[in-house]
Amino acid sequence: MIKKGTQVEVISGKDKGKTGEILEINRKLGRIKIKSINMIKKHLKPTKENKGGIISKENFIDLSNVKNVDEKKKEKKIKGKK
What we know:
Layout: E1 7-10, E2 19-26, E3 31-34, E4 39-44, E5 53-58, E6 61-62, E7 66-68, H1 71-81
């Protein structure tokens, strides 16, 4: 089950092989944001509240491009191999 805070691994695209934690889910479009994966540059206009400039932030990635990484299953596989 995919939910916020779950560890996932990217299986295709420019960040293939990287793992991260899910930050946000858009179930309607079938896309998720993963911490420090699929980074983009965003240009912000200066306002009274913020300075503006270029910032890096995460962008959405398709749900079909990730797989769930469950720590409990990994431990069982390692113990079974002995």
